[in-house]
Amino acid sequence: MKLTADEERMLAGESGPGVQRAIELLIAVGEAYEAEKLIDISSSHILSPEMQFWNTGQLSRWSRELVAESVEGATHFRVPVTINPIFLEPTIAERLGYPENYIEEMRQSLAFGRETYARLGVIPTYTCCPFYIHPLRQGEHSGGAESLVVLFNNSVLGVMVNRESGPTALATALTGKTPLYGMHLPENRYGQALIELKDDLDPGAFTYADYNALSYGVGKMVVDKIPVFLGLPQNMSITQLKYLCAPLGVSAGIPMFHAVGITPEAPTVEAALGGRKPEMSIEVGRKEIDQAFEELCSATEPKIDYVFLGCPHVTIPEMKEIATLLQGRKIKSDLLLVVGTTEPLRLLAREMGLVDIIENSGGMVVSGMCSAGSFLRRGVPEGFHVGVVATNAAKAAHYLKAGGVQVWFGTMPECINAAVTGKWEAA
Ligand code: F3S
């Protein structure tokens, strides 16, 4: 691989052992993908192992050691860097009844991570939706992990970014470089699978849950092919688009989709496909969407213990909808309703009086935490019982179901009703 003088200096260790290891890692990844060179990036989004994936004991120590070695000697990130949410807020962990030793270990890990990334100059977004705060422009090359961020950047903003791992994302942040392969090359960004909506669907009337279910079902069908959605409303909002993005990160292994007329590189279906024939064509109708709804539910009991909204983190319009649905109602006393977002949006929503409405109903608005993480029971001793969860997030429902948690997946009004009555009743 050809290296610039600056890259050679990093490789020689002139910026310290952490940066040296980072560029060695990026070169190794580049060689595996036959990249001819490294390129400059304009930003990165990191996903820290010690804060994102809650581990205990040995695994927790290894995560911290990995990060400490990765940043050894580094003084700053070389590009603007945003960061994913933490796994679980200790105050929520207390309310959920997590064991005290678990919470104490969590506090130590969070303090270590926050101090480490603050020292390197991270923008402390602690969100899976950094595009609310630090949006990028079409054609920018970026580094980063978190499937939602990668899908949104490539598909909605036209940013060029690969779906990276936690360690390689950190390496891009430390060096300001990434290998030139995959999504950084225009020829790899064309669509491969054509997705047409049947006449029995009216996407203009879709709920967020419908977009989630559509995307979840399509992801299972395309597996690793870049889908090209035809017939989606041209005026889709950022909220609707994030719900279209998120489930593709778990039901498929892809970094990008095209929505014709929405994705910057897809003004037409021909442009989306790069003038080629699709490798597969799929028709999706009400039957397929209903099937995705069914697949995302694992609960059998109607009694609900927790309701959470905000996977991905909620926008202000969603916060407004939640407050409107809750106005004048009380959440069942033995039930926890958590709305997850990012701190700047929580501040705005508080200013707008929306947080007060949610809190007066008995709900909580939390920021900087993965809304799904709290219920995953990762690393928690046997016997710790989370209960039955309701959510309008397909990505979260997928994770919870895989983790053995009983989950109901439905619309936002269904989730709010469940929070008030304590029972799941599909509309
Ligand atoms: Fe965000 Fe956690 Fe969902 S990182 S997309 S809230 S699984």
Sum up the structure in keywords.
five-stranded parallel β-sheet, binds FE3-S4 cluster, 427 residues, four-stranded parallel β-sheet, Aconitase, domain 3, 18 helices, alpha/beta
Q: How does this structure look, described?
A:
There is one protein chain. This protein starts with a helix and ends in a 6-residue tail after the last helix. Helix 9 packs across helix 13 (286-296). It has helices at 5-11, 17-32, 49-52, 57-70, 90-96, 100-119, 147-157, 166-175, 208-222, 238-245, 248-251, 269-273, 286-296, 316-326, 343-351, 354-360, 394-402, 412-421, and strands spanning 38-40, 43-46, 81-83, 142-144, 177-179, 193-197, 227-229, 258-259, 280-284, 306-309, 336-341, 364-367, 388-391, 406-409. With 427 residues, it is an alpha/beta fold. Helix 14 (316-326) links the parallel strand 10 and strand 11 (336-341). It is globular and about 65 Å long. The protein contains 18 helices and 14 strands. It folds into 3 domains: 5-186, Aconitase, domain 3, CATH 3.30.499; 190-294; 297-421, 2-Layer Sandwich (Aconitase, domain 3), CATH 3.30.499.10. The model has no long low-confidence stretch (mean pLDDT 94). FE3-S4 cluster binds at residues 84-85, 128, 148, 246, 311-312, 340, 370-373, 395-396.
